[in-house]
Amino acid sequence: MRALARYLPILEWGRGYNRTVLTSDLVAAMIVTIMLIPQSLAYAMLAGLPPEVGLYASILPIFAYALFGTSRALAVGPVAVISLMTLTAASSVAAPGSPEFIAAALILALLSGLMLLAMGILRLGFLANLLSHPVVSGFITASGIIIATSQVKSLLGVQASGQAMPELVSTLVSSIPQTNLPTLVIGVAATAFLFWVRKGLKPLLVKAGLPPRPADLLAKAGPIAAVAVSTLAVIAFDLEAQGVKVVGDIPQSLPPFTVPLFDAELWGKLAVPALLLSIIGFVESVSVAQTLAAKKRQRISPDQELIGLGAANVAASFSGGYPVTGGFARSVVNFDAGAETPAAGAFTAIGILIAALFLTPLLASLPIATLAATIIVAVLSLVDFKTPREVFRYSRADFAAMMATILVTLLVGVEPGVIAGVALSLALFLWRASRPHAAIVGRVPETEHFRNVKRHKVFTDPRVLTIRIDESLTYLNARWLEEFVLEQVADAPQLRHLILMCSAVNAIDASALESMEAINHRLSDAGVTLHLSEVKGPVMDALERSHFLDALTGSVFLSQNAAFDAVVALANAEEASNGEPDPLLARGMI
Amino acid sequence: MRALARYLPILEWGRGYNRTVLTSDLVAAMIVTIMLIPQSLAYAMLAGLPPEVGLYASILPIFAYALFGTSRALAVGPVAVISLMTLTAASSVAAPGSPEFIAAALILALLSGLMLLAMGILRLGFLANLLSHPVVSGFITASGIIIATSQVKSLLGVQASGQAMPELVSTLVSSIPQTNLPTLVIGVAATAFLFWVRKGLKPLLVKAGLPPRPADLLAKAGPIAAVAVSTLAVIAFDLEAQGVKVVGDIPQSLPPFTVPLFDAELWGKLAVPALLLSIIGFVESVSVAQTLAAKKRQRISPDQELIGLGAANVAASFSGGYPVTGGFARSVVNFDAGAETPAAGAFTAIGILIAALFLTPLLASLPIATLAATIIVAVLSLVDFKTPREVFRYSRADFAAMMATILVTLLVGVEPGVIAGVALSLALFLWRASRPHAAIVGRVPETEHFRNVKRHKVFTDPRVLTIRIDESLTYLNARWLEEFVLEQVADAPQLRHLILMCSAVNAIDASALESMEAINHRLSDAGVTLHLSEVKGPVMDALERSHFLDALTGSVFLSQNAAFDAVVALANAEEASNGEPDPLLARGMI
Question: How many domains does chain B have?
């Protein structure tokens, strides 16, 4: 039962379900449903898919996540960045809007779902670590800019294409003369209204006496007002005849049962995009889920989240949808509206199902410019210029990875952008791991502490050198270690003893062990004895399984303080006996 | 002048050149020349190339390395593993022995040379770190087994092909019935003789009164005796008529001037093999050069070695050769024979040039079985079963990478073998970096030391928890850090203060900083104050450039001992004032 509950969290929260929780969940579901209807249509359009696909992607996937997911407030469905990635990936194999394009979107959802499930079962959630915060943040900012730019064409009522900025901007600029004036009026008005709703409406409602939370939720329903007013305007003034493009007829139906095409070549072409999309979606979703869980001291399990999102995507692929993930905006609304359990998600799904069955005729005259305005206002909140500044001040390496992600995403495309960010982060990490920090240290007078001779006034002895290595010793820095230690010795003619202070050495791998053996051997040829101090427990356990400790010319000391005292005494004794070290003393046996 | 000397080390050693050094160099060159003639022919044959190509690859490349290399004893030329890699790479685009195959070998040498030069100029020598000791050792052992097996066909006088063991063994076994008896006799006799020379001759000569060094060098000349005797046997008994294959006519000429073909498609196909071959050759060569330099307290510069080897390979590509690197056996002979400067290499090149011009007619009747015997005896010394056992005992992760390299190399091929080893090492490294070691620590009674509560009897306080993180905090483990810290807190209801002991934290990147901020925030929500202790200088410098220290709920302490005392006092004060912490006290300002 407990093991089963790990894979089916519903068994856990389902037991405590009662009428109070039900009421909270129902209220949250109603609010989220109202918000989701225009958003689902808009994101499907952004992905190059018919609008109803957005509704379908918000029904079964939510049920699937409610069964397998661990977050209580996460709302799964179409999101902006994943829609953009779907557009890019499916465009590489078919023309947007074509039946092949819709088929490619289903395959992407299935592949992504299977990959997420596999990663969850194999507990490969740690792979998401390869995306650092700056890379993800840079990617989302760049995607937000691309998405907003791509929607400007719908505000102007013109054609423009391209998935990276250079093409997007040039096709957009060249089509400005074809601008449709009524479309522009609707688009600009809707955008301005939505920005005002976001910034100005809530303070106004609070001033009018409404408590902050309801005021906030009412402001979140702004898009519905824009949808209603602009649809009525189109009908009242027959704007369609004047060239205003509208959503058109949406079939009234349950989500269709779809079977993704199996075509090995197509799957092969879509595999890498599906993987990138899965990982980006997972990272986004988990960070939203973690933020919300922490607020209520709940916990989520990242490996189980992979299974929840995987199931949601597989469900999307069999019900006419496209790739989905946990969205930030909708999850926050869900949480703020008081959702207590994943059942709120299920109720939302029922709400959207009702919309798909009965409300779509009302949306036939909805202008596409209004949907574009919704997208623009939503994604501009993703664009973040503050984080790059802070990262720049904190770490140039992280900033380099972030800028590479932003620039490659903007100039080349979303997939190369993610890959460039991950590759550069990894290369910088490996480069740093291969040139670790190390310091010559000496004793801080009157203490047992040893500090960097360059940063502190410390006591040293010309016959004894202590090197503190500030990194685990691995194959990446084994060669560096040999070079660094032997250089220090070459520059110190009086030197007789070298202490490697290992307080920051958390592991020594087989390559580094070979280098330590080489160092011990070469120092011995040079008449220098090698000692170790402050070796950590697990490292010492490993060394004891090798021949290194037998070959070591000096001793291993528990503390650097004891090492320094003993070794200075040894050097004194050697000088007294005319430079001939007492072998027993040198091995620390006296 | 000094800057120039960095790129042209000859300007440094050339100044001190005198008659004594000249004599040493000349003697060493003569010995190495005698050893190199049969070896060069044999390795060219192993690479699927005409025998003279081996001689050409031992002339100009040596001059080029003598100009640019930093090792004084390294002998550059054809080596076994690189010959095998050349065979594999060139076979993928042409049939061994064909003119296209020879052209491919020239392209490989040029590409490899240009890549090494580029890495040297860009100082990318650290990329060679990606090959760990166990991977290189496993690769060389597996290559040795493949090479030895591939030569058995020449001992039997049969045809067999394949670059990985399964095909090699099956074609060999099926051709056993075609064994040529005279060839087998020569092959087995030569192999047995060479093994005896290696193991038994030197002790015999020493017993006969010869000093050890000349005895050793004389034993190294054994292959020449095998070449001479077997050639004479072929001529005396007309064994060619009985089916013994011989080297045949070798053109008597200077190295030809060759221009590698430029064909973008072919270059594209050979680029990855050339890169692998370059890095394997560089790693091998540098470790030989470092070992020899350390014996005489000389230094080599790895980045300059890239330039030396790059120049040697470019020279090979323009003089009818094939990829070369610094060989272990020949370099050791050169060193033992007393080579003092790279001039010894230049003299060796002149010796081989003389051989190419005048001695090749003597080699026409040399049986190929003798060359195969030379290769088998040489490469079996590369096969090492001791290291895998030691690595197994020391580290399972390193052993896994090593075995993957050995098995994939044997079963699939040399290039997949190297790639599998590098990829697995990297994956294991990243996995470990993403799950670092961390310990709850307490004070060792009567000391200022804090140790793992699981390994030592230590003093702790239920209201104060100290976590020592044994790794740098990076994007790879940022998520782990959040989960680990919050789990500890969830399991300790009495907890009021958490100290992160950062003595082993050598860096905190932007992702980890964000996680630290999240931890600080969430702990504060849970009524737990966060403190840091023993933060290293460079890490503190970085933290001071962020907002973290302003937001930190607790203080930063120089030593863990001071931190523990202050925080326990703080907890006592809080209890006395009925749980309400004094804000000034909590910020460490009292």
Answer: 2
